[in-house]
């Protein structure tokens, strides 16, 4: 490395663990990114470790097909143009839609990849510059069920209400539907000690690398049928009740509503739980005993959930059942124990509390709360009565695009809907029905490719910003390289559009630091209070956990120790009922398809499919299936299969795996075109969170005749 090398401490562009890294370039001017090296950096979440995606992340800064100029569709094809022209086309389209259909005719879709500054500005832009209620974001597809259940029980949702490093000393960790060995590899070191003691319990219909890790240490893999976490959790709660593991003192002093949970659990006697979930009852008993014992001896006991348990039309109730189990054992709101959800996206946490969700204003405030509206409107310098009310949830918004009374214009910042939204073909059709689709991205994602206007933006290491990790830790992403000539920051794009739409020139700040200071004011007094945090403090202290209500406040690594965020300070039990999946197998569709992730690809793959090392290690789209199930469909390992569902068909290479349940197939959702898993997924929505049922739909397998 040359003596003139410059090191910038920052964080990974991908997932919610927000691993710390150092980017090193070998000259002292902020130069284009040809020579950037990635190194792991010591930090509580990753302790210097990174996964394959993090190690290769600098490749994103030199991808050959980086978008450099705005594109506008002319006679059916996207043509390069200048910024003024592109922004004028957008502003004209917005004005036309508003004149004919009113403010709600323009919609906005955001994402958990956006920094806090961008997520906040996007929400403000929608409510103030567009005046539309119709803004939602991809977090609705992510942890919204866990958020809804956490708010019901704890009064607030911070994914993990404790630092991930607290897991390191635990003796028992019960993981519902999270495959952290692939989705957050450096997190595995935090659960390693528990695993080595036989205390890691993994609930997953597949024997994932995470389940293997549990088994290797003498722990447990519970392999239920897809969509049965709710009866499993209630069955565990009943075991805890009958076998005397309840923490009665905690239930009496720190919770309310136990009777509802007790009644709900009463229906899940062991034989019934075993019949519905497929999990042997002795294994369930052993799992409960391990967690209860660790808690009773104060040796650290945690229950965590991920998308496997949550992305169902019953996701909120399922998490309520999991939380009921945690509360009955006395875990939440104490040192060395707790419940949390593993937030997925880089800024999945910050993205959900700063106002890009249909029903929320910054600071995790409800948009229907008059006091919240007054507070935020004062910060924005507008009349509170002019702020719109709650808009449609993500899938409902997408489903309404182009309809007679639906939005005619959509602006997308930070999502690749064509690949990642459920029932892909429907989404593609709705996008095509719009008068104007505008996508801001730094690559021509599958969604950008069908847009009318594409605006090229900056990416992580080319600009400053903050993100909030899965444990509410607010941290700095720093500019480490000069951006290429051409792209602009999302903040500049939104400010330029706002001015064209008649907003005062100074209403939308474009400097990340200034936006963050405004976030402090807008979030002050809210559940997610950032007002005691600023860039200088983050530079000094590396990171601060919210809530942090003033500059002298130390931040809140561990929430709920003195009480929950409910009006009476007690956690609330909910007594959920099992409803089952929206679709059930029959003779035509005899298998359940579930979907998820592999280590080498991130989300819709629009970034990781452009990194050679990741693309080659991921290989192509596959269908993971038990060999007997494949054989019944006339398929063998390596054959190309058609996965036929009620809404469409996807294709992938058969990957036989003896450990799969014979009734289940697994599809990764990272691949585009005809290999999109979302061509078959269901749009059944959770009634509370409006989460689509990504994790369960019925399918059959057929041999694909290629040629
Ligand atoms: N490599 C990689 N890492 C990522 C991401 C990525 O795309 N790629 N994305 C990030 C994001 S945004 C997120 S949200 C997280 C998600 O992180 P995870 O929740 O760990 O990821 P998934 O693979 O979606 O689902 C986890 C597991 O759920 C299982 N599962 C399926 N159905 C069920 C069920 O009914 N019950 C139970 N108990 N389990 C079930 C699947 O077999 C899968 O192994 O990962 C983050 N990290
Ligand atoms: N079948 C199935 N589908 C799923 C899931 C599943 O488990 N199964 N999981 C769901 C979940 S949990 C999630 S989180 C979603 C994620 O799916 P998507 O919302 O599609 O997320 P990404 O693929 O990360 O897309 C982000 C896009 O924004 C761009 N981008 C990144 N940073 C910025 C920025 O700062 N500004 C702008 N303007 N653009 C940026 C990236 O290049 C990329 O094209 O997928 C959901 N879909
Ligand atoms: S675990 Fe997540 S944050 Fe850490 S290096 Fe991998 S993708 Fe990046
Ligand atoms: Mo996610």
TrEMBL record:
SUPFAM superfamilies (alphabetical): ADC-like, Formate dehydrogenase/DMSO reductase, domains 1-3
Residue stretches in coiled coil: none
Bilayer-crossing regions: none
Name of the protein this chain belongs to: Molybdopterin oxidoreductase family protein
Residues of the 4Fe-4S Mo/W bis-MGD-type domain: 5-65
Organism field: Antrihabitans spumae
Keywords, comma-separated and alphabetical: 4Fe-4S, Iron, Iron-sulfur, Metal-binding
Domain of life: Bacteria
Keyword Metal-binding (UniProt): yes
One Pfam family it belongs to: Molybdopterin
């Amino acid at each position: 490395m040359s003596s003139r090398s410059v090191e910038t401490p920052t964080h990974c562009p991908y997932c919610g663990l927000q691993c710390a890294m150092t980017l090193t370039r070998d000259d002292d001017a902020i130069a284009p990114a040809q020579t950037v090296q990635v190194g792991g950096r010591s930090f509580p979440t990753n302790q210097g470790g990174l996964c394959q995606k993090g190690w290769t992340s600098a490749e994103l800064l030199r991808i050959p097909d980086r978008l450099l100029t705005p594109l506008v569709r002319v006679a059916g094809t996207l043509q390069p143009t200048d910024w003024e022209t592109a922004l004028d086309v957008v502003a004209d389209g917005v004005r036309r839609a508003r004149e004919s259909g009113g403010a709600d005719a323009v919609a906005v879709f955001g994402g958990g990849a956006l920094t806090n500054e961008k997520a906040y500005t996007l929400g403000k832009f929608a409510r103030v510059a567009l005046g539309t209620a119709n803004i939602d974001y991809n977090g609705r597809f992510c942890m919204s069920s866990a958020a809804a259940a956490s708010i019901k029980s704890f009064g607030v949702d911070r994914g993990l209400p404790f630092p991930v490093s607290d897991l390191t000393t635990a003796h028992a960790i019960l993981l519902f539907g999270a495959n952290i060995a692939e989705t957050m590899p450096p997190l595995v070191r935090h659960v390693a000690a528990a695993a080595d003691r036989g205390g890691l319990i993994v609930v997953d219909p597949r024997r994932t690398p995470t389940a293997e890790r549990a088994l290797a240490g003498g722990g447990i893999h519970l392999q239920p049928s897809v969509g049965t976490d709710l009866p499993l959790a209630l069955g565990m709660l009943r075991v805890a009740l009958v076998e005397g593991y309840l923490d009665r003192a905690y239930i009496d002093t720190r919770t309310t509503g136990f009777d509802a949970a007790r009644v709900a659990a009463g229906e899940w006697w062991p034989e019934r739980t075993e019949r519905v979930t497929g999990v042997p009852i002795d294994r369930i008993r052993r799992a409960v005993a391990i967690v209860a014992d660790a808690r009773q001896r104060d040796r650290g006991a945690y229950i965590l959930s991920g998308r496997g348990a949550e992305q169902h039309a019953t996701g909120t109730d399922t998490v309520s059942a999991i939380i009921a189990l945690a509360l009955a054992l006395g875990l939440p709101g104490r040192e060395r124990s707790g419940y949390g959800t593993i937030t997925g996206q880089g800024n999945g946490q910050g993205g959900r509390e700063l106002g890009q969700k249909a029903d929320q204003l910054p600071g995790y405030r409800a948009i229907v709360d008059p006091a919240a509206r007054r507070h935020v409107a004062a910060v924005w310098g507008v009349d509170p009565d002019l702020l719109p009310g709650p808009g449609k949830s993500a899938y409902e918004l997408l489903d309404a695009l182009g309809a007679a009374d639906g939005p005619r214009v959509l602006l997308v910042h930070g999502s690749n809907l064509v690949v990642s939204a459920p029932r892909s073909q429907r989404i593609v059709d709705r996008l095509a029905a719009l008068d104007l689709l505008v996508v801001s991205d730094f690559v021509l994602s599958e969604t950008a490719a069908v847009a009318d206007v594409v605006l090229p933006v900056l990416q992580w290491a080319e600009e400053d910003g903050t993100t909030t990790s899965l444990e509410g830790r607010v941290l700095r992403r720093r500019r480490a390289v000069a951006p290429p000539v051409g792209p602009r920051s999302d903040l500049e794009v939104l400010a330029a559009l706002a001015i064209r739409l008649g907003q005062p020139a100074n209403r939308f700040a474009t400097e990340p630091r200034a936006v963050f200071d405004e976030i402090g004011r807008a979030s002050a007094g809210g559940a997610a209070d950032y007002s005691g945090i600023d860039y200088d403090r983050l530079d000094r202290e590396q990171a601060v956990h919210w809530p942090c209500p003033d500059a002298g406040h130390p931040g809140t690594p561990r929430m709920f120790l003195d009480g929950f965020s409910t009006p009476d300070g007690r956690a609330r039990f909910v007594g959920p009922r099992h409803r089952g999946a929206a679709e059930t197998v029959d003779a035509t569709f005899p298998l359940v398809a579930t979907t998820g992730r592999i280590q080498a690809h991130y989300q819709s793959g629009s970034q990781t499919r452009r990194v050679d090392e990741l693309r080659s290690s991921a290989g192509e789209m596959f269908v993971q299936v038990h060999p007997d199930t494949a054989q019944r469909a006339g398929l063998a390992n390596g054959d190309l299969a058609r996965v036929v569902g009620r809404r469409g068909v996807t294709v992938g290479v058969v990957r036989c795996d003896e450990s799969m349940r014979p009734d289940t197939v697994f599809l990764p959702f990272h691949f585009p075109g005809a290999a999109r898993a979302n061509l078959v997924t269901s749009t059944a929505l959770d009634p509370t969170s409006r989460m689509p049922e990504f994790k369960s739909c019925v399918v059959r397998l057929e041999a694909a005749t290629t040629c």
